[in-house]
Amino acid sequence: MEFDKVIRERQATRKFSSKEIEQEKLDSVLEAGRIAPTAKNLQPIKIYVVKSSEGLEKIDKASPCRYNAPVVLLVCGDKDIAYTKGDYSTYEMDACIVATHMILEATNQGLNNIWVEMFDGEVLKEEFNLTDNLVPICLLPIGYKDETCPASPNHNKRKDLTEIVEYV
Ligand SMILES: Cc1cc2nc3c(=O)[nH]c(=O)nc-3n(C[C@H](O)[C@H](O)[C@H](O)COP(=O)(O)O)c2cc1C
Fold it and tell me: How far is the CA of 86 from the centre of ligand 1 (A)?
């Protein structure tokens, strides 16, 4: 898919069908995350591919926003590995860049997806036995949208460039 089409076609999907994702497509999504840039190339990332029914039940305990997706990527930042400067650490930023690479590649592969921040991090930590260095940053439900899935209500509501850009 042309890059311009990818960035315009991606939209939040809130109703997935139960159709499984082809492994090759999932591999491409994960590879896009692997090659994403991170501060000092420290790659302070851990991605859990949650697709077993047991794993998906754990996701559902932590978030109301799986929307029936057959696969959820749980993207964590690693506080112990990330670049830090005083109190500042890039683990969240790094994880977001990795997640962004993955949702765009998912779109490129014809897979629907959504970025989810509405989750209980403590529940995720407990359910997935995350060590203290790992911080859940986002959930990425991925799959094929249900044919009755409504269009994302906000997708075409964006500020004008003049409101967000200033040439100096
Ligand atoms: C950082 C972030 C967090 C989000 N968290 C949630 C969420 O927890 N639940 C949800 O249904 N949508 C969530 N969304 C989806 C946004 O609501 C959606 O991307 C936005 O309204 C723009 O619509 P679009 O993605 O279709 O263009 C999140 C998106 C981002 C970027």
Answer: 31
- Which residue minimizes the CA distance to atom 9 of ligand 1? 116
- Nearest CA, atom 10, ligand 1: 116
Cβ(69)–Cβ(12) under 8 Å? Answer: no
> Considering the entire predicted model, what is its pTM?
0.98
Q: Encoding tokens for residue 35?
A: 């090659």
* 26-45 pLDDT tens trace: 999 999 999 999 999 999 99
Q: Which CATH number fits domain 3-164: 2.60.40.1180, 3.40.109.10, 3.60.130.10, 3.40.50.300?
A: 3.40.109.10
Q: Is the minimum distance from the CB of 114 to ligand 1 under 6 angstroms?
A: yes
pLDDT digits (tens, 9 = 90+) for 136-152: 999 999 999 999 999 99
Give me the half-sphere count of Cα atoms (radius 13 Å) on the Cβ side of residue 143. Answer: 23
